[in-house]
């Protein structure tokens, strides 16, 4: 499972940015691919995941695209660093993993737990992120990983809500704090669009029926306009005499 954190440092050149936090080695700047690339067409316009939320507003997002699952949590206030920075500092965290039913259930549990215990998650991420002179901030990956393991161990959590319609997302406000919940099932270009296939099949059937009706109408119309066929009478025997 890949972990990304967005935050900022004290220096002016260390503004908000995403860092990928590897299991080993130094974190390095990288934006999750789904946030950069994933998009769909809504009402004729192209919409990206980043268009669906404000980074300064608490948001829970689960997204699926090209074999990957994304769980994004934004606007987790960094209390201690805000005191040092003397300006509001917020952290965002993103988990990216393989699109499997097991991982989807795990992300559902994390999102639900985050919604129910927002302050607990805020404290976990706040404790895992600190200022760093070189990169702006550093991240303790183990603390974040322990949180995931803790949530995975917890049983009987409610399922994170999903959109009622395919390729749809929902926003639900919950009190204190106000959290936007988003579930976005992105269209996978590698998979057939069943709705589109059904539509074209239905359209083809209608066209076929119209052709049959039109052909029948033309044939019956031509038959009605043809003059009746009269057989030439053969001469009677008396007329030959």
Tell me what you see in this structure:
With 241 residues, the chain is of the alpha+beta class. The chain has helices at 33-37, 79-85, 101-116, 118-128, 141-153, 194-225; strands at residues 2-7, 17-21, 28-29, 39-42, 45-48, 59-65, 68-77, 90-98, 129-132, 136-139, 180-185. α4 (118-128) packs antiparallel against α5. The protein is elongated, with a radius of gyration of 32 Å.
Strand order of the largest sheet: 3-2-1-8-7-6-11
- Rg of Cα set: 32 Å
Give start-end ranges of low-pLDDT stretches: 160-176, 187-194
What sort of overall outline do the alpha carbons produce when their principal axes are compared?
Answer: elongated
Number of strands: 11
Which short descriptors sum up this protein?
241 residues, alpha+beta, seven-stranded mixed β-sheet, two-stranded antiparallel sheet, 11 strands, elongated
Strand and helix layout:
Blueprint (H helix, E strand, L loop, with lengths): L1 E6 L9 E5 L6 E2 L3 H5 L1 E4 L2 E4 L10 E7 L2 E10 L1 H7 L4 E9 L2 H16 L1 H11 E4 L3 E4 L1 H13 L26 E6 L8 H32 L16
Parallel strand pairs: 6-11
Antiparallel strand pairs: 1-2, 1-8, 2-3, 4-5, 6-7, 7-8, 9-10
Helix pairs in contact: 3-4, 4-5
Q: What can be said about this structure in brief?
A:
By secondary structure, the protein is an alpha+beta fold. It is built from six helices and eleven strands. It has a seven-stranded mixed beta sheet, covered by helices on one side.
């Amino acid at each position: 499972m890949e972990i990304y954190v967005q935050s900022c440092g004290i220096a002016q050149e260390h503004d908000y940015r995403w860092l990928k936090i590897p299991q080993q080695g130094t974190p390095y700047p990288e934006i999750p691919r789904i946030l950069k690339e994933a998009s769909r067409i809504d009402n004729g316009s192209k919409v990206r995941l980043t268009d669906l939320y404000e980074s300064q507003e608490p948001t829970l997002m689960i997204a699926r695209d090209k074999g990957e699952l994304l769980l994004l949590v934004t606007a987790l206030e960094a209390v201690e660093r805000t005191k040092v920075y003397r300006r509001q500092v917020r952290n965002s965290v993103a988990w990216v993993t393989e699109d499997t039913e097991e991982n989807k259930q795990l992300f559902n549990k994390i999102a639900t737990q985050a919604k129910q215990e927002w302050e607990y998650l805020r404290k976990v991420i706040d404790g895992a992120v600190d200022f760093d002179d070189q990169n702006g901030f550093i991240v303790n990956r183990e603390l974040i990983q322990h949180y995931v393991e803790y949530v995975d161990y917890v049983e009987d959590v409610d399922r994170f809500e999903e959109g009622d319609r395919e390729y749809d997302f929902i926003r639900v406000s919950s009190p204190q704090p106000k959290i936007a919940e988003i579930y976005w099932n992105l269209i996978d270009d590698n998979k057939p669009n069943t709705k589109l296939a059904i539509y074209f099949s239905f359209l083809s059937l209608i066209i076929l029926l119209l052709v049959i009706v039109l052909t029948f109408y033309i044939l019956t119309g031509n038959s009605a306009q043809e003059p009746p066929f009269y057989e030439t009478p053969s001469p009677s025997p008396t007329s030959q005499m």
